Amino acid sequence: MPSHSPPWAVNAEGVPRSLSPPPKQEREGEMPKDIHNTPPLLAGAHADTETYNAMYEASISDPEGFWAEHGKRIDWIKPFTKVKDTSFAHDDVHVKWFEDGTLNVAENCIDRHLATRGDQTAIIFEPDDPNEPAQNITYQQLSDEVGKFANVLKDLGVKQGDRVVLYLPMIPAAAYAMLACARLGAVHSVVFAGFSPDALASRINDSGAKIVITSDGAPRGGRVTDLKGNVDKALLHCDDHVKCLVVKRTGQQVTWQENRDIWYDEMAASASTFCHAAEVGAEDPLFILYTSGSTGKPKGVVHTSGGYLVYAGMTHQYTFDYQENDVFWCTADVGWVTGHSYIVYGPLVNGATTVMFEGVPTYPDAGRFWAVCEKHKVNQFYTAPTAIRLLMGQSDDFVTKYDLSDLKVLGSVGEPINPEAWNWYNEVVGKGKCPIVDTFWQTETGGHLITALPGATKLKPGAATKPFFGVQPVILDPQSGEEITTVEAEGVLCMKDAWPGIMRTLWGDADRFVSAYFADYKGYYFTGDGCRRDADGDYWITGRVDDVINVSGHRMGTAEVESALVAHEKVAEAAVVGYPHELKGQGIYCYVTLMSDADPSDELVKELQAWVRKEIGPIAKPDVIQWAPGLPKTRSGKIMRRILRKIAENEVDGLGDTSTLADPSVVDDLIANRAVK
Ligand code: WT7
User: Fold this and answer.
1) What mean pLDDT comes out for the span 4-25?
2) Which of 140, 239, 255, 489 could tie 484 with a disulfide, CB 3.0–4.6 Å?
3) Which residues form the AMP-binding enzyme C-terminal domain (predicted)?
4) Contact between 484 and 477 (Cβ < 8 Å)
């Protein structure tokens, strides 16, 4: 065994594992027309460093050949003949993969598995309340439920290309609804159930959806959110034609508007379990997912069908070393891209067993994650550093009292993982035996970009390590925009060429797609993150360099919080920055200038916190509000956020050049009254 390989690069017999490419399907010339006869693909991805290096090299030197082969891991109705047509050139950004192929995503996630794994569990549903029985949903049952759901949507007039908004708890119906849209070729847009009615309304309106799917209530952490009530409020701001399809979850009382609201169960009772699957183009949209950018308006990231599915499946298999019969658990919510790629599409296209958890890590106590791992014999566990930090603050007994011997791989996502959290995860949860894959990626990227592969990558606490196949990270000098070509480098993180899972555009805003991602550094995709590359060529993400903050792994534009604050009648002006927060990674620090007739008081702090929470959602509640008689501005009126960040971080000695400020004295006041000293 080569000395740089970690111990898990060998199998039980001490023989190095090899990273096998997905098995080739039996094909002579053309791919089969009848996709139901094609065997599902579940390859062993056990890795070693040499094989990773060779495969990575091949993916970069011959992307056409590499992806032509790996594109076959899914079933095509009409096989593609063109593999890749991509350009990041500023005046000609376009991304197309497998463009002349056609497929159906739901058929890939369900039908093709039925012959061999109809009785295998596809989804394990673990409810919020541990006393409520879990559900094991087989692939056959999944097929029936998705067929019914698709027929209900069809009866409501949903057609190929139509947008459907989902606002649901983490229940199987969320997956059914996503897959039902995919079956019809409709485009889903899942809105996180923790978002406010206003946030929901703006997403319904921007996407032009004519239907929103919700549930009566959403149990979470022993409390119930009135989801239907939120939809009622949202729909006051939407077109009268928008319908609301309601799934029963809690059985609670709901308000009802005839001709608009429909009980799912009533329609499903008479719906057939068979629904014809639409043939969609590889580049037809599969979903829109709204995420935060540098302005107040969320961006509708558009993912298409073929390339996304190939990439979600491949990263799920390789990054987590998913093996036949393993139980995979990603703790994210389907309201985020992590849930799309690693609860639903990646696992299901691979014929895997995926856990859907409705609850929170600390209910009924801080042992819940580990109780669920024991109960369902979880093999791969994927969560966020913020959850790990929260749990490591509790007694280790919450972990050690459970049998976690089935765990093989641990994953981390959402923000840089600090070494203390990494070590606790490794030692207390993984007992030093489970490789930790720290997966760097984004809503926009569809799947992992930079991540370790179990067995293939030497792990370092806090490093995302190496690029996935086909991904070409570069580090640029932020000022000159030049590539830094030395092995050791620090700067902004960009990507040189496209991989199949990258977004294709922003919904209804092709110009912003180019200006947000391809304009600052011409010829590259700009991630918005800072990054360091060490002497071994490993990548360490250092955090966002734009006006986006990362609160408990949730991405938020500071501008969104600012516009919520200034919408309050007592607020004249607001500037929002992130600051280091022990549990959340970053907290929300708001500088607020009040209207002249408003009095700064503790009550007003609480009022503004509650206000932002209501406007955006609980995750956006400000941690700190500092009254600011004035904000540091340049003579041209631009707020100097760099200074506000430093004050919030309590780094007041290194404020840098303040000479361009219109009134330097405001800075002294802000320093004197800063929240953290
Ligand atoms: C931003 C993207 C992709 C799923 C979850 C978040 C940060 C994400 C890591 C990581 C360091 C990370 C980046 C990125 N981020 N994963 N492993 N190490 N930072 O998706 O909401 O689109 O946020 O999350 O800053 O740009 P998202």
Assistant:
1) 33
2) 489
3) 560-638
4) yes
The domain of 323 spans 49-533
Rounded average pLDDT over 606-634: 95
Give the span between the Cα atoms of 362 and 389, in whole angstroms: 12
**Token couple for 424:** 């606790």
2 exposure class (CB count in 10 Å sphere: 0-12, 13-18, 19+): exposed
Q: Are residues 502 and 385 in the same domain?
A: yes
CATH number at residue 594: 3.30.300.30
Q: What is the pTM (predicted TM-score) of this model?
A: 0.90
**376 CB less than 6 Å from ligand 1?**
no
What Å distances lie between residue 523 and 87, 367, 498, CA to CA?
A: 8, 48, 11
Task: Tell me, using a 6 A CB cutoff, whether residue 291 lines ligand 1.
Answer: yes
Report residue 46's pLDDT band, with 50, 70 and 90 as the boundaries.
low
Say if ligand 1 is within 6 A of residue 418 CB: no
Ligand 1 contact, 292 CB (< 6 A): no
Residues 197 and 98 in one domain: yes
Contacts (Cβ under 8 Å, ≥6 apart) of 55: 19, 21, 469
Return left, alpha or beta for 400; rule: phi > 0 is left, psi -120 to 50 is alpha, else beta: alpha
Q: How many CB atoms lie within 10 A of CB 654?
A: 7
- The pairing of strands 327-330 and 380-383 is parallel
Q: Would you say the ipTM is above 0.95?
A: yes
Instruction: Tell me the pLDDT of the chain averaged across its residues.
Output: 92
The span from the CA of 532 to the CA of 637, in Å, is 33
Give the CA distances from residue 519 to residues 91, 96, 307, 336, 355, in Å, rounded to whole numbers and listed in that order: 9, 20, 24, 26, 40
Query: Angle 292-296-297 (CA atoms, 0-180°, nearest 5)?
Result: 70
Q: Mean pLDDT across the stretch 528-536?
A: 97
Same domain, 424 and 515: yes
Is the CB of 443 inside a 6 Å radius of any atom of ligand 1? yes
Q: Are residues 604 and 573 in the same domain?
A: yes
pLDDT over 70, % of the chain: 93
Q: What is the mean pLDDT of residues 111-123?
A: 97
Which tens digits make up the pLDDT trace of 449-496?
A: 999 999 899 999 999 999 999 999 999 999 999 999 999 999 999 999
Ligand 1 atom with the smallest distance to the CA of 445 is 3
What confidence category does residue 43 fall into, taking pLDDT thresholds of 50, 70 and 90?
A: very low
Mean pLDDT of 537-545: 95
Q: Which residues contact 220 (CB under 8 A, 6 or more apart)?
A: 128, 169, 358, 359, 360, 363
Alpha-helical runs (H) found in 302-429:
306-319, 337-339, 346-349, 368-375, 385-392, 397-400, 419-424
Please check whether residue 513 lies inside any domain of the structure: yes
Q: How far is the CA of 347 from the centre of ligand 1 (A)?
A: 20
Whether 415 is in the pocket of ligand 1, judged by its Cβ within 6 Å, is yes
Closest residue by Cα to atom 21, ligand 1, is 555
